Each structure stands twice: as structure tokens, then as C-alpha cells.
Amino acid sequence: MRLGRTATILLLLTPGIGLIVFFIGAVIYIAIAQSFGYYNLLGESGYSLEFWETLTGRKAYARSVRYSLYVGFWSAILSVALAYPLALWLRKPFTGSLTVSAILKAPLLVHGIVAAFLFLNVISFHGILNQFMVWTGIFDEPRRLQNDDNAIGLLFLQVWKNMPFALLLLTGAVQAISDDVLHAAQDLGAGAWARFRKVIAPLSVSAMQAALIIIFIGALADFTFQTTIGPTNRQSLAQYMTFFKERGRWNDAAVVGVTLMALSLVGAIVLAAAARLIFRGRLR
Amino acid sequence: MPAISIIDVVMRFDRFTAVDHVSLDVEEGEFVTLLGPSGCGKTTLLKLVSGFLQPTEGRIEIEGRNVTGVPPEARNTAMCFQSYALFPHLTVAENIAFGLRQKRLPAAERRDRLADVTGQVDLGDHLPKLPNQLSGGQQQRVALGRALAVRPYVILFDEPLSNLDAKLREQVRYEIRKITRDFGLTAIYVTHDQSEALAMSDRIFVMNGGRLEQSGAPEEIYRHPRTRFVADFIGSANVLDAEVVGEIGPNLWQVTTALGPLAVSSETGPAARRIPVAWRPETARDGAAAHNTVEAVVRHRSFQGHFTDLIVDAGTTTQRLQLPRSAAREGAQITFSIAPEDIAFLEPDA
């Protein structure tokens, strides 16, 4: 009876979850298999560590890993750091709060590539910012703002695009904290910072973790922003993977792809654990 | 010197006046209740004392110090909330110790106080549990313990029992009163439940429309309501519009009402010729008497255990009486009487 019931449930779930598991599983399987020499479209297929050994020995690979991690971590952290005070500010409705909230969330409606081109118009050599700076006399002549080594422009754009998403999650979480709970903390002697650290942050840490993880994974694998406004002397992992794919080197591309997946997993765990550790709010 | 002085306090929210020129003093160790219907301003007044709201006008003093602009965290008060407001991510022990940590007390003292308080509120077995693992009554005790642990000068209760069932409410009511007495705490208790106020308070402040209607000991408020509102709100008294005929004896006044002519005993006498009078349903006596005998027809009967609640048509009005062991059925003719000393003159209507 129990077996029959379990089988029925599994059969009912198969068209939905089954397809999702199949497609995700298939992609992961192919990527991992290709990175170890299988499904080789240019040569002999079979188990081999050659592609891993070759790629991990290259400086370009290590640079890409470092650069993508840099973009991923800072995008996630800065987006959440900016969204938190805004979410707290918007926690209680006030005159105009709906408009402010809508404006802050507007970037969610703008496609990344469009935003990147808009931003390019602003910071390019003959862009609006340079023209303005020259007009005000602050710059003597236009400056190259686009290809900065630290990818400040790229991070700015990542934060501009991702902060509203973090804001959406965090606003919901902080709005769910009752006034009474915050009043109780205040009544027991907790000032603004103590209330944030000991009550608000622990009670919204799940939303914070979700925002950090989703933004990190997106920014880690960013291709659009990087190719449009990113520094030309840096290569993200997504760019690196495309580089191999365009040359038909699917197994090398798979190594980069698996690296991206592994970094996403590890990075997400690190961010989630760090957020929980820092903001757990336990008193013991 | 009073423990708390509220001096001519006004609280306005835009055009709405929630608290309207209220002044009152609470003595040290006193347990006072702010009693009134929803929206009368009692919780607003409590939030003004705790510091969550700043008054539009007036001044609040605690221990003789003007605390009007002082934030809640800097006031020597602790509050028990209607919703308990426990920190859901912290254990019972951590909830109780929260205020102690904020005060940066040494670990040994924190441990001692935690042990003291958990003993007082009987939560020793629940210290490692999270609030969602406790019953409503236990959560209320944690909230009480958390407030007591910081040893505040004033403890404030915002309808703390309204989420508990009737039996538990009575038990926790007794515990709250015992603990505040044991700790010698000055307490302000907000409720709309008159039985709670009457059972727990040293003094009751009845509020209506943002104003204080009457204050006094529970017996005084119950037996000598001053206004139509207080008479009606506490104990659901029968209020009648009366016209004074004259004095018919020492401290005895004859009035005409919709119930018929009544004799009213009063030392001070009526304040006006047309004046409301009130009498309580439980003061009615079965049968005739020397004064105030009334013939009535039972319209509705409700057996309540130790008394029977009767709604009767008498004279040209409908009244409520509570008689012990009444066998009268609906439609039956009954005779009851009210002693002159059980009828009170109220303040004339404005």
C-alpha cells in the first residue's frame, strides 16, 4: 500500500520535477563528462585529466578565477550593504515612500545589456560624464574611465542592477519584523545599532543569504556587463569559456564551466555561512 | 514624590487627539490600571510613559526627573507587550538575559538574575527552548521575566493577558500581581477588561475619548461611578435620566424616572434638577421593600450559575437585574426593589 502510494506520488511529480531534474542533471553531467575528456568533438573521447591539468596550469585561468570571484563577491556584498539601510528606511510607509521604492526598483525592469550601453554613454571617452567634467573645468581633457583595473564601473553597474533585487528581498524580511519586537529591544536598552545587530539582522539573515547567493552567482558568471563595459585587459570566466567555445574547444570550455559551477557552490556556501555567523544574533 | 507624574499631557496624530490634557500621579510601589474601551488613548498614554511616543504637549516625570524627550532605552522602565514581543531567534534564557547584556552586567550577576527570575516565573525547565516551542501562558511568563530581569523602576503592561484563554488569564493575572508586589514594582497596566482592572489594581484610571473620566480605588470606581460612561463601562449599570422632586428625608431624595418614582440616598445631594442616576443589576432584591419597589415583566432570562441575568420591561424602560436563584421565566411578572443607597447620582450631562 505504502509502496503503491509512493509510486503514485513519484509518477505525479515526474512531469514537473522530473523534467527539471533531467535537464539540470543532463547539463551538469555533460559539462563534467566533457571536462574529463568525454564527448570530445575534436578528438578521441575517454577519461582524461589532460584538460584540467592544461587549463589549471595557465595564468589566464587563475586570473579569470580571481577576477570573477572579485566581481561576484563585491557585487553581492555591495548590493546587500546598500539595500539594507534602504530596506530599513522603507520599512514603515511614509509620504512618497511608494514612489521612492518604485524608483529604486526600476533597474529590475531594465535589461542588463541596455543598462550597460546607457552606462557606457555616461563613462566613455566622449561620454556625458567626461563632457560635464571638462565643461566644469574639473578635467582639462576627457579621461579614460572605462578600462580601470579594479572594474569600478562594472561593479557600479552590477550594484545598480542587483541592489533592487536585494532590496526586494530585504524589504519583505524587515517588514515582517513586528514593531513590538523592536520596541521590546529598545525598551530593554538596545540602541539603533544593537537593535540592528541583535534583532533585525538575525531575523532577516535568510533574506540576506538569498540575496547574497543569487547576486553572487549571477555576477560571478557575468558575460554581458563584462563584454560591454568591463576592462578589456581582464577576462571573466564566462568570457574565457566563450573564448574556448568559439574555437570549438568544448572540453576546455567545459573545464571553465565546471569551475564556474564549483565556485558558485563554494562561494554561495561561504557567503551564506559568513552571513549566518556574523548576523546570527545569538547571545551565548 | 510620586514615582510617575504625567502632567497635562496631550498627544495629537495630525488632527486626531489621542490623549487630551491628561494629568495623573502614580505612587511608588503602586499598581494602577488605565481602563477604557478601544481607542480611548490608554495604550498611547502607556507609550508616552515608555518613551515610544513623544507628547505634543505636557511633561512626563519618572522618579522626579523630566523624561519627556528621553528615548525608551534610557528610561528605567520595562514593558510587557500584548503580543509578548519575544525575540523569536533567541532561547528563553537569551530572551530573559537580553536586557542584562544591554546593561553590560558581569556574567556572574547575569546568571544570578536569570536564576532568580526563572524561579519567580517558573520557567526553569524551558530555558533552552525557543519561544515558538512554548504555550501562550509560558510565553507571557517569559515576557514578564524578561521585563523583571532588568529590575526596572516602573513596569508597564499593555493588555498582556488578552491573548490567553479565560482560565489561564486568571492564573497569570494572579502571578503578575504577586510578582509586582514581591518586587515592590511601580506598575501601569493597560486593559479594556473591567474585571481584570478591578481584581488587580490599587487604583484605576478610567479613560474615554483621550480624557480621564474618573480615578480611584476599584471599590470606589465600582460603587460610586461619577459619570454615565463610567457607570455603564464598569459593571454595565442601569442608567436612568431623572428629575429631582425634592428631599424627602435626611440625605434621601425623591426623583422621577422612566422606571417610576425612586428614592435616592446621597450625602452630597444632586448637582442639578435633571440628572442621571445609576444602579447596578446585582443590587436588585427579589420582592418588595420600603423604598423603590418595581413591578416588571421578564423579557429575557439567562442562567449564569451563581445568579440569573434578567432583562425586564419596567415602567417605560428596559432594565437589567441579576438575582440569585430566580425562577422567573420569560413573560412572567416579577417584583423587585432597589435600596436607596444602591442608587447613585451621576454628574449632570454636559
* Structural class label of chain A: mainly alpha
CATH architecture of the largest domain in chain B, by name, is: 3-Layer(aba) Sandwich
Which strands sit side by side, in order, in the main sheet of chain B? 6-7-8-3-9-10
Question: Biggest protein-protein interface?
Answer: A-B, 22 and 26 residues
Could you give the distance between the termini of chain B? 34 Å
The structure class of chain B reads alpha+beta
Work out the strand percent of chain A. under 5%
Q: How much is the radius of gyration of chain A in Å?
A: 23 Å
User: pLDDT below 50 for ≥5 consecutive residues: which ranges of chain A?
Assistant: none
Major sheet size, sense and barrel closure of chain A: none
Question: What's the name of the CATH homologous superfamily of the domain at 60-117 and 148-278 in chain A?
Answer: MetI-like
Tally the helices of chain B.
8
Order of helices and strands of chain A: HHHHHHHHHHHH
Q: How many DSSP-defined strands of chain A?
A: 0
